[in-house]
Design goal:
The structure is a single chain. The protein is of the alpha/beta class. It is built from eight helices and 13 strands. It has a nine-stranded mixed β-sheet with strand order 5-4-1-8-9-10-11-12-13, sandwiched between helices. Strands 3-2-6-7 form a four-stranded mixed β-sheet. Helix 1 packs across helix 6, helix 4 packs across helix 5 and helix 7 crosses helix 8. The longest helix is centred in the C-terminal third of the chain and has 16 residues. It starts with a strand and ends with a helix. It binds adenosine-5'-diphosphate (ADP). The site of adenosine-5'-diphosphate has 19 residues, from strand 12, helix 6 and helix 7.
C-alpha cells in the first residue's frame, strides 16, 4: 500500500441553483442549496484513498463547522487528518451559483487555506511517505518549502500547477512529476494545445526545464505521459457519457499516485487513472462521484 501525503487545499462548496443569475443589487430566490466538501487538495486525497492508498492530509481549515465537516468526511475515507491545522480564519469557501442553462458564477474565498504556513510544516515527518501531492491552492512559500524538505528526504513530489493563474514556476524545480491539464500546459509552455502532437511539443519544452516526468491530461481526448529519457505514452480517454466533469483531473491524479507509487507498471497505472476519471465524469458531483478501486477494476474488465 502506498503512503501518500497531500499538502493542499480544503474548501466547502456551497452550490445554489437559480433560474437565472442575479444582476448587481438584485435579490432572487434560490431553488435549493447543496454543500459539498471540495478543494483540489482534499479531492486528490479522497481519490487516492478510494484507490486504496494510505493517505494523510495537511493544510488549514477554520475553527468552524465547515472545517469539522471536511475533516469528518476525510476521516470517513480513512484519511489521517492529524496534520490539518485549525486556523482563526474561516474554512475556504466556494460560493457557487448555477442557473438552468449551466452558466455559473463562483466566489472562492481561500480563508484558512492561505493561513497554512511554513511553520505548520514542522509537525510533518516526510520520511513516512512514498510520495507527496501538491497543487496551487495554498501559499507558494509552503509548496516551495515542502519541495525542499522532500528533496532532502529523497521523497518524490507530484506537482499539479492548478489553478495555473498565479502559479510561480520556481515550484517546478525539485519536483519528480508534473501533472496538469492542457490549459495549464499551454500557460506553462506558451504552446497552444489542440491535439496530442501539440501536447508533445509543450511537454518537450517543459521537460527541458529538468522535470523528470510529466503528464498532460486532455479531457475527453485522454492523457499523455512523457519523461526526460524520451519515453512517450498516449492513453485515450474511456468513452463515457460526460455528466459532470468536476474533479476529473483530481481523480486522475489521486488514482494514478495511488497505484503508480505502489509499484504498478506505468502504462497500467495511466489506464487505471483514466478509468477512475472516466467514472468520475459519468456521475454528477465532485468527491461523491470519485470511484473506489473495485469499481475501477470492474470498469476495466
Ligand atoms: P481537469 O479536470 O483538470 O480539467 P481533464 O479534463 O483533462 O482534467 O480530465 C482528466 C482526465 O479525466 C482525462 O485525461 C481523461 O482521462 C478523463 N476525462 C475527462 N473528461 C472526460 C470525458 N468526457 N470522457 C472520458 N474521460 C474523461
Amino acid at each position: 500500500m502506498t503512503n501518500i501525503l497531500v499538502v493542499g487545499s480544503m474548501n466547502m462548496d456551497i452550490v445554489t441553483r437559480v433560474g437565472r443569475l442575479p444582476v448587481p443589487g438584485e435579490t432572487i430566490h434560490g431553488l435549493g442549496t447543496d454543500f459539498h466538501a471540495g478543494g483540489k487538495g482534499s479531492n486528490q486525497a479522497y481519490a487516492a484513498a478510494r484507490s486504496g492508498a494510505k493517505v494523510a492530509m495537511a493544510g488549514g481549515v477554520g475553527s468552524d463547522s465547515f472545517g469539522l465537516e471536511i475533516c469528518r468526511k476525510l476521516e470517513a475515507q480513512g484519511i489521517d487528518t492529524a496534520a490539518i491545522a485549525a486556523k482563526p480564519e474561516t474554512t475556504g469557501i466556494a460560493l457557487i451559483t448555477t442557473d438552468s442553462s449551466g452558466e455559473n458564477s463562483i466566489i472562492l474565498s481561500p480563508g484558512a487555506n492561505y493561513s497554512y504556513g511554513v511553520e505548520d510544516l514542522e509537525a510533518l515527518n516526510l520520511s513516512l511517505y512514498d510520495v507527496i501531492l501538491l497543487q496551487n491552492e495554498i501559499p507558494g512559500t509552503v509548496n516551495r518549502r515542502v519541495i525542499a524538505m522532500a528533496e532532502a528526504a529523497g521523497i518524490p513530489v507530484c506537482m499539479n500547477p492548478a489553478p495555473v493563474t498565479g502559479f510561480d514556476r520556481d515550484q517546478l524545480r525539485g519536483i519528480r512529476l508534473l501533472i496538469m491539464n492542457e490549459t495549464e500546459a499551454e500557460v506553462l509552455s506558451g504552446i497552444r494545445i489542440a491535439d496530442f502532437r501539440e501536447a508533445i511539443s509543450a511537454g518537450r519544452m517543459l521537460l527541458e526545464e529538468g522535470i523528470p516526468e510529466l503528464i498532460i491530461t486532455l479531457g475527453s481526448k485522454g492523457s499523455l505521459y512523457m519523461d526526460g529519457d524520451g519515453k512517450i505514452i498516449e492513453v485515450p480517454a474511456y468513452p463515457v457519457e460526460a455528466v459532470d466533469t468536476t474533479a476529473a483531473g483530481d481523480t486522475f491524479i489521486g488514482a494514478f499516485a495511488s497505484v503508480y507509487y505502489a509499484g504498478k507498471e506505468l502504462a497500467d497505472s495511466l489506464h487505471y487513472a483514466a478509468a477512475a476519471a472516466a467514472l468520475t465524469v459519468s456521475a454528477s458531483g465532485a468527491q461523491s462521484s470519485i470511484p473506489v478501486k473495485e469499481q475501477v477494476y470492474a470498469f476495466l474488465e
